[in-house]
Design a protein that fits this description.
2 copies of one chain form a homodimer. Chain A has 528 residues and is an alpha+beta fold. Chain A is 38% helix and 20% strand. In chain A, strands 1, 2, 3, 4, 5, 6, 7, 8 and 9 form a 9-stranded antiparallel β-sheet that branches. Chain A has a 3-stranded antiparallel β-sheet with strand order 10-11-12. A 3-stranded antiparallel β-sheet of chain A has the order 15-16-17. In chain A, helix 4 packs parallel to helix 6. The first copy, chain A, is globular and about 85 Å long.
């Protein structure tokens, strides 16, 4: 996700816990490299039936590239066969007279066909155009072996020869991508499922996760290439079922815990390079997800040392969250902000109340694991808070007539509120089931825009025992992405508006995005 | 100069004389590096009184740069105070929140204000747009220290911040240019002249020469960055009066002699990187200038070993040139091409006849220096050829009524024909003087476009004893460039059409060009 000025904190003092940060540093993974060669040469043609209006057609084999002489204004699109994250290298040689002018090249990298079909100059969205993956290159001496220093996230590479000279053309050869990931496929067990579609969903999830696993869990290798708490939580869940790179989860938790603000609050995201920096962005729900993620980690690993180290941070997030609670209710104020989903009009009170209760229940489990007087005190206190907040939710946010949770002063109805209240298990399972079935029927509520919230909807269905509905949702939503050409799952997908982008253009969306990688977790964890 | 398809040879076999090439390799100079800091910040504003319609105004000191915060769409123009050839480096740091998107930068390098004022996208000329000096850069991690790997030729640097993100801006610092040249200023004697203008002409000539002196004598450090024989000859003349880097002249002569075609003809120019290549371009006058340049070199140095080594090549150029002569006349055919000047309509016969006679006279001097039987035979033969060709010129090319030399079947009248016939000293000095004075009066002849031919006009005036006219010409022509803002002398300058470019745009002209560096030679050699 990207952030807006709205959620930007000012005058925050970042503390550094060198002990925790040293542990994170020691857990830094080794990146695994593989060389991937291109599959074929393609054309991208306008096609109103295809996503974003573009479809891909094969026009030659990869081997044809080294027989293709390109002069001024010629171009070629190379398909690397699947989503890749890595470093590009190629050789380029002149054909004709000795090159009497530099070679001017433009390279455009696309995760999706739209990126190599529509000019980046058409982009006029509100987040930085610098995310669009392109290079303008001048090569003074030919032949040349080029190794580009930047990492790209792509399947398609468009090579445009902007200029040579009238005396020579060029040929490309030895094109390859050196992919990088810290995921280890050798520890991966393949899924055998009677439904090929479920196997495909699992496979695409795993590729998504793998391509986001770098020095840390990145949200997206194209954009923002950053460690976000909301993404981390879902990546960690998928990881326990697949790569089991538990040390990478541990590393990320230590990083967040090592850079709190002066109140002990963890940032929504961290920058890793050139040095570790906590972004000046704080999100109510994301901070709580630190505690949730630690609980998941502890339950997956039983790692007591990490629990001891990170418990103070986990506890502190609860304390800070409770400061925004009055009479058991998360206050609907401008002084805090939750992410919940990419939706301009979404009121965040009720879903945040759901996140708080959901987290409190996991915090109690952590407190019990900590034990002793401190653990018992916390457990007692938080159990009381659970009752307060549940009661306050039922009294203030539950609409008896509508049989939905409402949010904010305007008593807004949204999917997000129902989803998080179900996950928080405020109502008994039977009522949760009824609520969700009614939700699926009802079309007029404020809807969902991101796979992030779709994940929590799916898990809510499973929590409420609606297994078939969960499978149907996975098949229609993530399966829809695959039918629309996904090699990895996307940052954004609205089946009813496939050109949806909160940024003003499909060009800038991320098409390999961590928070979208959970079908493998859902399928494997719940045995779907 | 650049070449056209017209002058491109096909199916030429290049021979390699490893003995000569090894000697050239041993003479490879060490490049001297200096760090140059920017002078000031400027704006370039439209001004119909200024060359190309652009004038430069100071808007701040160089120190102001590190206080200038640049966000999306901001730009700044840095003035490095004089013409520079070298490598750019800078530091760039973020201001504001941690950079949450890459920095997208555009750098534009200009020898002249027009290059940083008019967009390169407006260029639509016939030579490659890849010569336009620009870079598009994406900087993923900030702060960053950037060292650009390419060499640039410039005075002005335009830095455009194409995008950051709404959360941060950037500041540039430690901007510097590491200049490179193989010229050694320590061996330079400064000119003391009672006329400041003559000192300025000398200084700008020397800077032009210095910036073209790299691994070889380049024609222009912006374009074509290549060793051309016509430029070399004039650079060598200027060099003997200034830097006295005689080994660099020697190296270039060995390079040309080491890569003849199968007939022994030297190419018009050589590529040095990635390996030594003779371009498939052959020019009648340039090949002859090899012999002339060797004669100049020998007379400047008395270097007998080089004379012995390169004599066969020098002699061979004469023999090949004489193959195009019938009844004493250079044939006006399409099978050969002379450069002479950048002029579409210029007939090359008479000026080439002049170049031939001029060269024969120097070849005789070389033959006399070689001595022995071979030297005597050549001397006798070429003296005979001088008489034949001079007589043929007078009989066929001299128009008694017009009192001008004519060229080609259409009996074209041009400055070039008169200039080269005067330099060839076909007429007695008194008649040469009369011819040139009449030429200056007469406006209707095919004129001149390049400083290259202006040089030969100036030297023709001096050969004919028209010293004051030569001084007036230097002051009006090269002095005109200085008055129009030249830091180094230009590839092209037409005082009557200051926006002249044979390439279709002022943007692509070279504004530091070897063939324009000769005022220092003319002033110092002739004591002007």
């Amino acid at each position: 996700m990207s952030n807006t000025a709205k959620i930007q904190a000012h005058n925050v003092t970042i503390m550094r816990d060198e002990h925790l940060l040293a542990k994170a540093e020691n857990l830094k993974p080794v990146l695994r490299k593989s060389e991937v060669l291109p599959n074929r040469l393609v054309e991208v043609r306008s096609d109103s039936e295809s996503i974003h209006g573009w479809n891909v057609f094969e026009i030659g084999s990869a081997a044809d590239l080294s027989n293709t002489k390109l002069g001024k204004s010629d171009s070629v699109i190379v398909d690397f066969g699947d989503h890749r994250v890595g470093y590009l290298s190629f050789a380029v040689s002149p054909v004709g007279s000795p090159p009497d002018a530099p070679l001017k090249l433009k390279l455009t990298f696309g995760e999706m066909p739209v990126e190599v079909a529509e000019p980046f100059s058409s982009y006029n969205g509100w987040i930085s155009s610098s995310w669009l993956q392109e290079e303008l290159m001048f090569i003074d001496v030919l032949p040349a072996k080029i190794e580009l220093p930047r990492r790209y996230s792509f399947r398609y590479l468009k090579i445009e020869v902007l200029d040579t000279s009238p005396k020579y053309r060029v040929v490309f050869d030895s094109l390859s991508c050196h992919t990088v990931t810290s995921a280890d496929r050798s520890s991966l067990q393949s899924l055998k499922h009677q439904e090929p579609e479920m196997e495909a969903l699992d496979r695409v999830s795993i590729r998504t996760l793998e391509d986001c696993m770098q020095d840390v869990f990145e949200d997206g290798p194209k954009r923002d290439r950053r460690l976000w708490l909301g993404d981390l939580r879902l990546q960690a869940l998928a990881n326990y079922e697949t790569f089991k790179s538990n040390n990478l989860v541990k590393r990320c938790l230590y990083l967040f815990a090592g850079l709190p603000d002066e109140h002990g609050r963890v940032s929504a995201n961290l920058f890793i390079e050139p040095k570790l920096i906590a972004d000046d962005t704080y999100l109510y729900d994301y901070s709580l997800l630190f505690t949730v993620t630690l609980c998941d980690y502890w339950e997956a690993t039983g790692d007591q040392e990490t629990l001891q180290d990170l418990w103070p941070t986990a506890r502190r997030q609860i304390e800070l969250a409770l400061e925004n609670v009055e009479d058991g209710l998360v206050q609907d104020r401008d002084s805090w902000w939750s992410f919940i989903d990419w939706h301009e009009d979404l009121n965040k009170q009720a879903p945040s109340q759901g996140v708080l209760i959901y987290t409190l229940k996991r915090a109690v489990r952590l407190a019990n694991a900590i034990g002793g007087e401190e653990g018992k005190n916390c457990s007692d206190l938080w159990n009381k808070e659970i009752r307060f907040t549940e009661n306050a939710a039922m009294e203030n946010l539950w609409d008896e007539n509508l049989e939905f949770f409402v949010s904010g002063e305007a008593r807004q109805l949204s999917w997000a509120s129902q989803i998080w209240m179900v996950l928080a298990e405020v109502l008994p399972e039977e009522q949760n089931r009824k609520l969700l079935l009614q939700l699926i029927e009802e079309k007029t509520l404020i809807g969902m825009t991101t796979p992030y919230l779709y994940h929590y909807l799916t898990e809510a269905l499973l929590v409420a025992g609606l297994r078939e509905e969960a499978i149907t949702l996975i098949r229609s939503y993530w399966g829809g992405m695959i039918r629309d050409g996904a090699d990895t799952f996307w940052e954004l997908y609205d089946p009813h508006n496939k050109s949806y982008s909160p940024y003003g253009s499909n060009l800038i969306n991320s098409y390999c995005h961590a928070w979208s990688c959970t079908p493998t977790y859902l399928i494997r964890k719940y045995g779907l």
